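Ticket 4471: requesting a sanity check on a complex prediction with adenosine-5'-triphosphate. Repro inputs:
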Amino acid sequence: MIEANQLTKSFKMYPSKRGILNSMRSLFSAKYEIKHAVDAISFKINEGEFVGYIGPNGAGKSTTIKMLSGILHPSSGTATVLGINPQKERKQLARNIGIVFGQRTQLWWDLPVKDSFEILKAMYRISEQDYRLFLKKYDDILEIGRFLETPVRKLSLGQRMRADLAAAMIHNPSVLFLDEPTIGLDVVAKKNIREFLKEMNRSHQKTIILTTHDMDDIEQLCSRVIVINQGKTVLDGSLEQLKNHIGLPSILKVLFDERVNPKNIIGVEKIEQIDSELTILYDRSKITSPALLQEISQWGTPKDIQMKEPEIEEVIQYFY
Ligand SMILES: Nc1ncnc2c1ncn2[C@@H]1O[C@H](COP(=O)(O)OP(=O)(O)OP(=O)(O)O)[C@@H](O)[C@H]1O
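Returned structure tokens:
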């Protein structure tokens, strides 16, 4: 249903120079580097799958989504979505996919939400009857009725995201590309969006690719994860496989009263040292936190200790 075959996108990177004149010169000079934002990625996604597409900042997630949705042309390799070539048949694809970019709205900023919906209704040639059903349905599940008359720029972030999600569904697409749809939302708004996405996938059989920095999104929604780093796939499997691979990662920051000499400890994946401060990434499935504290207190006298769960990107950077 969605297929990427050695999909690659490279950008020319010109060295950044100070001043407008120098910047212009570097643009026209022959000196540039090639950056492979997406580097020969291949996968097949079946109908009804909910796939988390994750990786650290700059890994190539958005670039992949843009190629799958026909916004960007691949430098090499191919993609097909529902048997459609996104670049050659972009209009036909647009009728069958919905896209949400959490970082920016697809709606008309100064218009009331309803006006944006009506523009989309005309663009997709949706009948009056289907449009009324759409408004009713998405009022029931996303409560869009509460802010239909409000200009998009005056919506809260949570309302804006609900409006964007509803807009992406107006033509009842079978595939959804969601690029960080929960970014910046509070806990309640995130929960609402996740409930909505779950329903779209389970009850309405939508095929969904989701990029996110939020591990809870992945845990609660995705049956499969594709992890990318520096443009390359580093894992394609179940959530269980991801967890088995990374264990139970935790980070311990310890400030000693003087510089110490760390030693190898089983279960410790990585230690970073800046003067007398150590940042220790360890796997709680291999060593417990008290056991680790006991070990490291033999290296010196700790003055301050902090423990935290790492962000998804930290984990991926450490493990891949
Ligand atoms: N138009 C462009 N010109 C040059 N480089 C680009 C362009 N678009 C993206 N890149 C580079 O390609 C790489 C991948 O970017 P991309 O936005 O796909 O990453 P991402 O995984 O979505 O990151 P984030 O999580 O920060 O959104 C980055 O190094 C980025 O700087």
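Notes from triage: DSSP finds eleven helices and 13 strands in the chain. Leaving this open until the requester confirms.
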